[in-house]
Amino acid sequence: MRDTTTITNTKGSALLSGLGYGAIAAIVNYFLAFEIYGSLTVIFGQVFVLLALFTRGLLAAMVSALLAALAISIYTDNVFFFVTLLSEVAVVHYLYQRRIPILVADLIYWCVFGMPFSYLYVPTVIDVPQSFLFLILAKLLMNGLLYTALAILLYQLLPRRWKLTTMTPVSDTLRGRIFYLSFLCIIISSLCFSFLFTVRSTQQAEQQIVSDIGSKANSLRQVTEDFVDDYVVAVRNLRDSMERVSDYEEKLMLMDYTQRNFPGFVTMLWSDAQGTILHGVPVASFSAAFNRMQESPSISDRDYFLMPKASGQGYVSSAFRGRAIGEQPIIAISAPYHRNNRFAGIIEGSLDIPELVRLVQRTDIDPRFQSVIVTDNEHQVIFATEDTALAPLSYYEPTYARNPYSLILPLTRIQQRDVLYTQRMNDYGWNIYVFSSPQEMTDLFLGNILILALFLSIITALFAVVTRRFAHELNRPLEQLVAQLGDPTNVPDLPSRADVTREVRALTDNLIAARKVMVDFNHQLQQQVEEQTADLARLNERLNKLAREDDLTGLLNRRTFDELAEQGYHEAMATRGHIALILADIDHFKRINDTMGHPVGDACLRCVGQLIQQHFASKGCLCARYGGEEFAMFVTDIDDVHAMVTDFQQALSQSCEVQGQVVPMSISMGVVEIKQHFSGESFRRLVAHADKLLYESKDAGRNRITIEQL
What we know:
Elements (H helix, E strand, L loop, with lengths): L1 H30 L2 E4 L2 E3 L3 H11 L1 H19 L3 H18 L4 H24 L4 H28 L16 H71 L3 H14 L3 E7 L5 E5 L1 H10 L10 H9 L3 E7 L7 E11 L2 E11 H8 L9 E6 L5 E4 L26 E4 L2 E9 L5 E6 L2 H47 L11 H52 L9 H18 L3 E8 L2 H8 L1 H18 L6 E4 L4 E7 L4 H15 L1 E2 L2 E2 L4 E8 L8 H17 L5 E5 L1
Parallel strand pairs: 18-19
Antiparallel strand pairs: 1-2, 3-4, 3-7, 5-6, 6-7, 8-9, 8-12, 10-11, 11-12, 13-15, 13-18, 14-15, 16-17
């Protein structure tokens, strides 16, 4: 009866101890799980499960493992942890009972059972590439070795009264124990440092991907906006010009001139108030289409006619296929045409989508890792890189997938490939998606793990040699000293002082040697991190410069100019300061390129850039190369803007010298000067106004300045 009661009390105590250790393990697993890369998580709650095994036995360990597995299963939504953690405790206990060291037993468990089971199970719940599956398995092994080593070291620090069961020492020799405990310290420090270094490296790689595809998405958004904006302005300017002239033939000439100067327009048409087409260019295409029709062609059912008619505003359509003149994908841009302040029809240009495709293809997308999809406001594909296998005008909207790679970027699948992506939307409701493969981060992580494995192998072999030599020098006098100190009846006959000093010195030298190996390795890793950080800083500095300036002229690029000028514009509107926006375009620049060659043309552009620096930038003005041969200047606090631009125009005519020869050039300018009208309208309207004045200068014969004060 007494034996039965004792057994019952022992089981009850083990059960309570297991619940206590398990509660701590569950809290640590749920609240202190450490995410190292995407959904890869390092857990430490199993430390307390193994402590329960070492101090309270198998029953307490199984109870605590059950609670620890419950917590991590809830945290990761993966019940497979019940299998791995409970079986780990059982296998480690079984091997330990057969005199296999705990750390070795855990290594055997993961290599023989844990990793193969996980290799078979993981693909059933999540579809990941083989490289990422290997990464999961490597993480499981490293995590298991780390928390097992921590549990063994913590066990050495526990008070003896807490240990109802006692671990059998891994070795009964001083050499074996020193080697085992020292190696545990190396394992723990190396794994911790490796995890931290890997986390930092992958975070940097992830942030680089986020920054890279984000900047490219922003660039593509700006490219698409600017591309459509240019053609919207062209249609509006044509409409304004046609409203100002009365001669019918002159109107037709304006249409023909616009279509030829804006090659993205496949066709342009002019309709009356009922939607009947009055004229279209190219004339040959429209004549052929009219001859095939039985009646006068009408566009009265088209949105690009109905919307301007109803709203009195310009309209940009979604992508669609043409029906009368060609069937290629197009985007219709239209503006209402008025006569005597009454709606009299529309002016419409059919923008060729392949023209936009060619523009997008010139962006710096890395085809090895990155893809691009551009859709309109109805999610129809306008552009997609070849690897996506999406046809123009097909429907596309990304579907979110479970993301094991990143906590920052969403994940989707394209052609059975996992890709991270970012999304931007331009002012026309177009969606710009830039995709990047996570393979780069996965390869980085795997590379760090391989380096760690190699390092641990070298350190293990080196440390075994060092320990053996150390034991040969130290064991005999220390064993004598331990034997004497272990006998309470005798007064210890300590070795001579010289012997103690020599032994302690030998021990110290070997420990310092081991520490030096670790410090040197840590220093090398730290130096590599610093060098990579410095390289990234230099690269970022170069990228920032390239993102702000035009490489040929040294002036600001269009995007940077628009940002700074818009900021200055709004400040001037708030303080009522005098400003002016100047748009300038070199006359007949194409003739210079065609007759004298592009190198001479580039030299002329540099010359113009230098003159702009001298006449404008030196006075604190913002100056930019706004397009191919177009420049923009934003002037503040200058009393006589007309004199400034006149001086510049005169200086340009004789200042461009290339290869010892003066290249005569002229320039047309449109200037909007604000001195009184501080209405706070948008900066984009100011740009459109200046562009309109530039257009008037061109129409008036070039080499002119059209200035208007508001």
